[in-house]
Amino acid sequence: MRACIHLIGCGFSVLLLATAIGCGSSDKSGGGGGGTSMDAMAAQLDAQNAARKQQEAAAAAKAEADQQAAEAQAAQTPTEPEKKAAGRGQVQFGGYYGAIAGARRHIMDKLDRLPWLQAVQHFQATEGRLPKDHAEFMKKVVEPLGINLGFKEEDQEFLYDPSVPPWGELYVVAKETAESPPANAPAQE
């Protein structure tokens, strides 16, 4: 028992001695020298934070300038009407019924494409080439055979693009109004 009390007393003495000496980290009088290192670390952290904020501000300003330049360039280039592949719209729900509806939509789109695809293939077999543009596609492929190209809204029209391999692609685009010239038309002065 006496040894135990002696051990506790020694431990308490060591604790008091360590507390009295201290680590000097909060001593600002310069006795331990640690206070200045804490102040220097805080100043260094503040400097790093300020540098990081400046870098972030510079990056944000550059991104803003790039975005404005892209918008200005987009405003200068003539815009092509938004193209959407002819066919039915996307299925808006998921799960089992969505999968069934999606499969039905896919099959119906394939069936809607068959008549004009076969007509283009026949045109290529007889003429040795694809229709050169939309006008020739409509005049020599669709109208003579009376092909139904599918569903479109009142303010939309079909557009055949022969540049998409292998047989071209049929798109639904917004109709051009009388006031706005086509995207690739030269500007009138």
Structure notes:
This protein has a 3-stranded antiparallel sheet with strand order 1-3-2. It has 2 domains: 36-77; 84-174, no CATH class. Helix 3 crosses helix 4. The chain is mainly alpha-helical. It contains 4 helices and 3 strands, in the order ααβααββ.
Largest sheet: 3 strands, antiparallel
Strand order of the largest sheet: 1-3-2
Class from secondary-structure proportions: mainly alpha
- What string, H for helix and E for strand, traces the elements in order? HHEHHEE
Distance between the termini: 111 Å
| Shape annotation | elongated
**Care to count the β-strands?**
3
Strand percentage lies at 5-15%
Radius of gyration: 39 Å
On the 0 to 100 scale, the average pLDDT is 76
Secondary structure: helix percent: 55-70%
**Low-confidence blocks of residues:** 27-32, 178-189
Tell me the count of domains.
2
Number of helices: 4
Task: List strands and helices in order, with pairings.
Elements: H1 2-21, H2 34-76, E1 84-85, H3 95-127, H4 134-145, E2 156-161, E3 169-174
Helix pairs in contact: 3-4
